[in-house]
Specification:
By secondary structure, this protein is of the alpha/beta class. The chain contains nine helices and 14 strands.
Length: about 300
């Protein structure tokens, strides 16, 4: 055997040992959270890949792996960039107020078309392709999300008044992966757009989820929004409330953090705010000692 061949064999053994060590590191986390419900909010901005297809495949593999090792994943999705793109194609300018989309009747039709006709089927198909039995469902189905108007300035944007998680619980009991589009209804059956961060928090609370995970396009929560070095690896709900009050959290992060804090204070064990642009960030956070992003606990 030549020296070059020996070096190649040694490198292969080293690589295999590293993989084995990672599996051993993951074991206690798998054992701890097997059988537990994990709600994952997947947004259109959270893309880990050179293309949306690569990003979606990476995310679907993570969800399939969680399902395979005994977790009970629930995916809650928005589709902000896709909705905005479709609006612009149709000659409408997207408008936001305090991080929430202003939704008139025409925009509501576009929201329904994009979420139910494009984003939800794509997610379901990708997860199914990687071996987990995903099923798409809307927040309107079985009156999952009942709402009232959030603010007349926002139009058809719903504020959740009641969550009936019966249909999701039934799917989890049958080892399915629910993929939830965030549209709700009022008492008359009128459809409303719901912020996906808020919907994910409310559903996690109703399910008594062990973990609530937000995939975003930032590294996590910063104590100073303009300083990348101020990233918080761990935070309490009290700290996050203080950051909200000080104005350190703004824009689209406001509903995310508010729903995160509310969910934890009402029974969800922990929340995680992760950079979804990192490939397999879910696995890195849940199965490694170091983790990534910001982990939030009650306090």
């Amino acid at each position: 055997m030549t020296s070059k061949e020996r070096t190649a064999i040694d490198q292969s053994v080293s690589d295999s040992a590293q993989i084995a060590n990672l599996l051993i590191e993951a074991l206690p986390y798998i054992q701890k959270f097997a059988g537990k419900t994990v709600v994952v909010k997947y947004g259109g901005n959270a893309l880990a890949g050179a293309t949306s297809e690569v990003a979606l495949a990476a995310f679907a593999k993570d969800i399939a792996l969680l399902h395979a090792v005994g977790f009970k994943p629930v995916v809650v999705h928005g589709g902000g960039p896709q909705i905005s793109a479709m609006m612009e194609r149709l000659g409408k300018k997207p408008d936001f107020h305090n991080g929430l989309r202003v939704t008139d009747a025409e925009t509501m039709e576009i929201v329904s078309m994009v979420l139910l006709g494009t984003v939800n089927p794509q997610l379901v198909s990708a997860i199914n392709q990687h071996g987990a039995p995903a099923v798409g469902v809307s927040g309107q189905d079985a009156n999952m999300f009942m709402v009232v108007p959030h603010d007349e300035k926002l139009g058809f944007v719903g504020e959740i008044t009641k969550v009936d998680a019966t249909i999701v619980k039934k799917m989890l009991a049958e080892s399915q992966v629910p993929v939830v589009a965030t549209i709700g209804s009022d008492q008359s059956g009128q459809a409303y757009n719901i912020n996906a961060d808020i919907a994910a928090g409310a559903l996690a609370e109703a399910l008594g989820a062990q973990k609530l995970i937000y995939l975003t396009d930032i590294a996590g929560v910063r104590s100073n929004k303009d300083e990348s070095t101020s990233l918080l690896r761990q935070a309490t709900t009290s700290q996050l409330r203080a950051l909200l009050e000080s104005g350190a959290i703004d824009g689209g992060m406001i509903p995310k953090i508010e729903s995160c804090v509310a969910a934890i204070e009402r029974g969800v064990f922990q929340a995680h705010i992760l950079d979804g642009r990192i490939a397999h960030v879910l696995l890195l956070e849940l199965f490694t000692d170091a983790g990534v992003g910001t982990m939030v606990s009650k306090g």
